[in-house]
Amino acid sequence: MSEESKAMRESCKNVAAIEQLHFVREKLQKFQSKMLSDFEQRISCMIEDVLQDIRQQELRAHEFRQFENHADRGNNSGTWHNPDVQNETRPAQHQNQQQTQEKQQQQNQQAKQQKQRRQLPDKVFVARESYLTALLQVEHMRTIYHIFNIILVMLLLNVVCHDYFVEGRIKLGLGTVFGGFKRLHWVMGVWLLEHIFVLALYYAFQGWALVRAKLQSHNSLQRFWSHSCLIMYISAQLVFGYVSTSLCAKFQLPFVSACVLLLESTRLLMKMHAFVRYNAERVLAGKQKTDDEQKAPMGRPYVPPLHCYVYFLFAPTLIYRDSYPRTAHIRWKFALSRLLEMVAIAFMYAFIHERHIHEHFGQFGKEPLETPQIIVKLFGMMLPCAMIFLGGFYMILHSWLNFTSELLRFGDRMFYKDWWTSHTYDSYYRNWNVVVHDWLYEYIYRDVYTHIFKGSKLASSLLVFLISALVHEQVLGFGLQVFFPVMFVCFGVVGVSLVFIMRSAPKTLGNIFLWFSLILGNGIIISLYSMEYYAKRNCDLHYESWSDYLMPAIWRCYH
């Protein structure tokens, strides 16, 4: 018995030792795999950084070389040159002086023309991540991201407690969300019809190019055909924009659904113009191949295949190219994270609407209007409006665009730059929304700069600001169904003025003033639009003439 007990104890010890060895081996294997994965991740990040630096260096060198060659070509073409004079010997000294003066005058005149009509750089797509995606790889920035997540969780707990103990049931802001997306099925129907129109534009453009090629031997007929198609294209664009805005009023869409329809319609308008503008230039130049050297059939102008156009319609860019940098695979975890971020920010918006906007302005038009009360309401809305401003930036320009980029494997994620470090409004407007800025620069500023104002940067920039302010006002005005051009004044007048005022501002002071003006300005804009919206709803207003529609409801309520 003693020997058997000893054998059993030894076997138990051996089993325990084997289990410990297995446990240690598993831990070592996990440690090894983790080290290898971290090492591979770090190596891949370092390689990607090196490749990114190489791409940027090549881009800078390429652009500088183009500019240098262009300048050399301009100087050579602008130099007054006469080989007969160079080869002949003229005894008269006054003739040489006259020739030198004429040469200098010609050079100065050509230099002025070259400076005015300097070639502007093109948009170049490079595979790269968004700024915040790269910054959140840093542990310190990721900690700040976790802090904001906890703040959203605290807001959720606040809503749960308020709904349960005050309202008697937990709603989680779903009523506000569903109310904002009311009649969304009508919006989706209009959206599908708009895409049918957009696809028809592709075949219309193809028909224009083919007929124009057949009329190549008849210059007058060719010009008549092109001008007729241009008039029809402009008319179709105007009708497209008018229908989308008029449907918002006809369907009585709530604000969120109206914004979805208006923003999508604006996006499709910009996409159509980008496709037509880019490819019309190639057709007029007689190009027979793509940027990837794919030739068109003999005797036919090149029109990109339909799949390039369809991909461009859904790609998160407004600049047309036949191809874009693509990622190797879809990171589903990354895409899911961006989708959850959009849901969280939508919940935050519902919270701000219920607990701040509606609480402050819900009875506007019924309650008495007093100056101290208005000032208190305005300053009470400053921080919530700052959250709306930052949340809108993060939800649309980071989460939504990165989500669609990941699903489409779109490589260039530079949808914004480090606008938060800007110390002038000039750099803020360039870095805030790179997607829209690139479209305005590529298809409005460059064409106006080159063909209309003939090298005037000031006039071209002012026209771009005017168009942008009108579009912003159109979205807000038709979304809220009010005529209250506060956004147009703040963006098209105050914003443009601040561009020139802050150009010489010191870096630190300029950044502080920029953030102060953004928080103050967004608070005033959102508060004024909320006042106008609720005043129109709460007051029994009668519209007897066209001037009543132009008069703000706030004024008519209290006067």
Structure characterization notes:
- The chain has 559 residues and is mostly helical.
- 76% of the residues lie in helices and 0% in strands.
- The chain has helices at 2-78, 83-87, 93-116, 131-135, 139-167, 174-180, 184-214, 219-251, 255-284, 306-314, 332-361, 371-380, 382-408, 425-432, 434-452, 457-480, 486-501, 507-538, 546-550, 553-558.
- α8 (219-251) packs antiparallel against α9, α9 packs antiparallel against α16 (457-480) and α13 (382-408) crosses α18.
- The N and C termini lie far apart (109 Å).
Key descriptive features of the protein:
559 residues; mainly alpha; 20 helices
The termini sit apart by 109 Å
Number of helices: 20
Please state the structural category. Answer: mainly alpha
Helical percentage:
over 70%
Q: Poorly predicted ranges (pLDDT <50, ≥5 residues)?
A: 62-94
Strand content: under 5%
Q: What is the averaged pLDDT score?
A: 82
Can you summarize the main beta sheet? none
Strand runs, count: 0
Overall shape: it is: globular
Radius of gyration from the alpha-carbon trace, in angstroms: 31 Å
The helix-strand sequence is HHHHHHHHHHHHHHHHHHHH
